[in-house]
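Lab notebook, bench 4. We co-purified these components, and the gel suggests they stay together. Before we commit to crystallization screens, I want a quick structural picture of the whole thing.
Request: model the full complex, all chains together.
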Amino acid sequence: MARLCKEMNSLFSEFVLKNLRLCGFHTVVDFLEENPENLVRITKLPYKDIVLLRHNIIANFSAFQSSGKTAYNEIVTNSAMVSTGIERLDALLGGGILTGNIYEVCGLSGSCKTQLCLTIAMNIALSLKQKVYYIDAKLDFSSRRIFSMLEEKQIAETDVTETLKRIEVVRIKDLYQLFSFLHTLRENLAQRELESSFVRVIILDSLPAVFFSFLNDTNNEGIALKSQLANTMKHIALECHVAFLLVNLASRHFDEIENLPDPDLTVSSVQTEVVKPALGKQWLHIPSTRLLLKKVESQVHVSIIKSINIPLCSSCILNIKDEGLV
Amino acid sequence: MDSLQSHLGAESGLQLLSRLENRPSLIDLDNVIFESGLLPNEIVEINGDVSSGKTLLVTQFLAKCLLPKSYCGIDIGGLNAGAVIIDTDHHFQVLKLVTIMEAYIARSGCSSNSLVDANTVESIIKDALDNLTILHCYDGVQLLITFHGLKNILSCNRNISLLVLDSVSAFYWQNTLNNNGIHKMDLYLKKILISLQKHIHEFKVSVIYTKPLYFQSKVHNDSNVIGKYGKISRQIKLQKVLNSVNLFYAHICDNSNRKVLSYEIGNDGFHWHVAQEHK
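Here is the predicted assembly.
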């Protein structure tokens, strides 16, 4: 909430602000919503100044406006398709992870979500020589696993250290630490254009871990914070041209469902097993692409269950090996 | 000034301009969904499940809206109208819009014309993209202030006929956190629509907004809209058929009619199973 203050405009003198506050105008929205004539009466400013102030506030606080052409050119020049290093997954995703987006990996517990993230982090650090942030909310990041994957690939020792250095692990204990990390990250990404801090992919393992403390909240605070987190991540993703890869749990439901979109069809009910991503129905709409993982013996089935440009239900099969998922 | 206006029936210069000017018509926006065309000042709601194609449908509307009617004498079939998208969910992708436009141009039969090569197609699309204004919003306050700024955008661009809000519910939950209280979802929706319409009513643009299926109050009451603002003229509800790979239903209702269409989603957008003859 932006409060009205002196710094906004020289026309907001102590006197004007005091009068506005006395009449209950505290934020820029209060100011904009009010009839200009009333504001003239309250602030004793001339009409044209009020109009000027309104324009000024609108210009400073409204959304950044860009034309479709600018946006297109910006995307063509600045966004990147980051290869995950897993051939079949790249093929499924249409080339790799596209910056500016939020990807979600979900699956039942033990469906290789973390393994997938570790493999992707390693591949990006090893082959693309890019820095990767690995936000570790479960406090179980295993550098030993990455080390053994690299060993299995028979990478030279110096490269192994270099690769491990490029994976920056951020340990967070709760949601608020996550927020403060994201805000610092945003400042860093916006400022530095150095090669060494060049980041394209940020991995968060795992999302439910951050929200467990809100399990029983009655004030919907958890939902509100989820939505705030989503908006913060989307802002960073678009503004700084990075992609987020989030890990989410899924749960299994057995349900009897009637599905009757067509009135001509007769009633039929089927018992089905539904695997649903965790974090509630509001979260379902947040990521732009969602992958569902399912472990079958020593293979992982990856299918797309939400996306704007990949056909739904397309899938691929990855093998679990000592060197990671391939 | 407001009181003066109501006494004398006077209007401001801005109102006069907007009354006289003619924005491009959206009558032909989509002959399957809007049989009688999309009219100025209409509000259309698209709601639906996750991955039922809400953003895709909107992208498809934008493609048709932005493309030119013809290019150097070759018929393309767009509407040559400008559009604004207020992007709050950030699912809208310009690249997808370009893909759909390419497919649209290819379908119109231009590609078989020897005069049109890949470069021409690209320049047609770039010109069309110039008709689009994108506004990225990241919080509720910004959204409200952006509504105030629309007046300026619309009066500077006479060819904008369509305004898209994807989606209307993006900041609802944050709003409950800030205001120490919970608004009913329907009430929140109505408030957003009213504050949007207040700013754009006189410009006679059509509004299409999306919302998730869950986003309505538990006790849902359709018909309590009083006054000229906040009324939805059409509702499109998208739903996936359970256990199907790629089969969806769209329920389309307006004041008098109600129809159900089935569709599947392809790379270039929606494929309707019926009403092909409308083409």
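The mean pLDDT of chain A is 87. Worth comparing against the SEC data before the next meeting. Chain A has two domains: 14-61, 73-325.
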